[in-house]
Design goal:
The structure holds two protein chains of two kinds.
Chain A (H helix, E strand, L loop, with lengths): L9 E6 L3 H10 L8 E6 L7 H9 L4 E6 L10 H18 L7 E5 L5 H18 L3 H7 L1
Parallel strand pairs in A: 1-2, 1-3, 3-4
Helix pairs in contact in A: 1-4
Chain B lengths: L1 H12 L5 E8 L2 E7 L10 E2 L9 H11 L5 E5 L1 H12 L8 E5 L4 H7 L22 H7 L3 H13 L6 H5 L27 H9 L8 H5 L6 H16 L28
Parallel strand pairs in B: 1-4, 4-5
Antiparallel strand pairs in B: 1-2, 1-3
The chains are: A alpha/beta, B alpha/beta.
Chain lengths: 142, 269
């Protein structure tokens, strides 16, 4: 597959109260963003286990985007404290093992930040497009 | 050995503990053994297992403690075993009031082999304290690799996995009743090599929990450098959360509490 044809597959885990609502706002505001992202709505970004992220990569995701409420805005008060811990740890572990930490991104996006949502998805999709297919996927195909 | 045996004999004969979990030479093999007051004469044969013969005594203590919740037990511990006890207390698997450590200091040879930062227990009933090894050269060596090379290195190792679950089964810190490595929605079944993420999932669970006893790596029939992975996972936990795994004074595990404030920030894209 040449780089021009490469369409990244991106999985999004968005919290019900902020980022998912932000995605809704982007939608009703008719903001354009790439359709490469498949969204899973979760009640809190703190419920996203590192397992889910790793499983996504195993299943062939080129990127994983986690969206949660800004610190202090969590519907469950401090659920996103756990999100940031897990993501930062996992990114560093992926770096050590060469599993491309850049393919995992965490962004705090509130329900009012429709434009930020659309921009984040655009930026992340472009970043992953430039990175090319995930190393893990290529290794498995070989 | 006399000092250790005398301590054990006192503990047992005075009824301070219901049993002592240690080692006995049987048919010229050092094997884990539960010494009891009923068979006090066996204590004369109690030994400290030689360096390369080690068993997850902490793990054997968990079902014992579960079965006899009122009883206290003494247990032979090296530095790593004691770190394990400290973590198991935190995770509610053992009651510190019911455990009496009988401490062993490892030899320099063993400490060097393990790259162990704390090769002795808080009480030393056998052996002499040696020089701890502060830095793991094995981890540093992998850390110098370029990402692509590191990936190939690890993937090559992960592909050798025969999914025997030996690393998990021998691990004194693996106490869960349901294991996510066997969860069919999270891990593919019926194929070898297993999912490439198999060892990473385990590494996540070991972060802030691995006491660096090294039994996983010694057990692994495929020679996967698991210890390097878990040493790094623990080092990351230390860097990110300032949590010293296995230390009695480290407070609760960062994975067990949300914390009073979020000290970390998201990485830029």
């Amino acid at each position: 597959m040449s780089d021009q044809e490469f369409e990244p597959k991106i999985l999004g885990f968005f919290c019900n109260w902020c980022t998912y609502a932000g995605a809704d706002l982007a939608g009703v505001s008719r903001l354009q963003y790439p359709s490469n992202i498949r969204v899973i709505r979760v009640m809190c970004s703190g419920t996203v286990s590192p397992h889910h992220v790793l499983k996504a990569f195993q299943k062939g995701a080129d990127g994983v985007l986690i969206g949660g409420c800004h610190i202090g805005d969590c519907h469950y008060l401090r659920g996103n404290y756990m999100t940031i811990k897990r993501v930062r740890f996992l990114q560093d572990l992926l770096k050590f093992t060469g599993f491309e930490p850049g393919r995992l991104h965490l962004e705090w996006i509130s329900a009012a930040e429709g434009p930020k949502f659309a921009q984040t998805v655009r930026d992340f999709t472009e970043k992953i497009r430039k990175m090319g297919p995930a190393r893990l996927k290529s290794a498995r195909a070989a | 050995m006399d000092k250790l045996r005398a301590k054990v004999r006192t503990l047992l004969s005075e009824g301070q503990v219901a049993g002592y979990l240690g080692y006995l030479i049987k048919d010229s093999h050092p094997l884990p053994h539960l010494f009891t007051p009923e068979n006090l004469e066996e204590v004369d044969q109690a030994v400290v297992a030689p360096d390369n013969a080690r068993y997850p005594l902490d793990k054997l203590l968990i079902p014992l403690a579960e079965r006899y919740p009122e009883a206290a037990f003494a247990i032979q511990v090296r530095g790593c075993d004691e770190r394990g006890l400290n973590e198991l207390y935190k995770w509610g698997q053992l009651d510190p009031e019911k455990v009496v450590p009988v401490g062993v200091a490892c030899t320099q040879e063993q400490a060097d082999y393990c790259e162990c930062p704390g090769p002795w227990a808080s009480v030393v009933d056998y052996g002499e304290k040696c020089q701890p090894v502060a830095k793991s050269l094995r981890v540093e060596q992998v850390a110098t690799l370029a990402e692509e090379d590191a990936f190939q290195e690890w993937l090559g190792a992960f592909k050798r996995c025969i999914k025997c679950y030996g690393c998990r089964d021998v691990c004194p810190m693996c106490f869960c009743k349901d294991c996510s490595l066997e969860h069919e929605d999270l891990m593919s079944t019926g194929q070898l090599p297993p999912d490439s993420i198999f060892q990473l999932v385990r590494a996540i669970h070991m972060a802030g929990r691995c006491i660096d006893c090294g039994l996983c790596e010694e057990t692994c029939p495929a020679g996967i450098p698991l210890r390097v992975l878990y040493k790094k996972a623990n080092a990351l936990v230390k860097d990110l959360f300032d949590y010293e795994t296995g230390s009695p004074t480290a407070g609760p595990s960062p994975w067990k509490m949300l914390g009073e404030e979020a000290t970390l920030e998201t990485k830029p894209m």
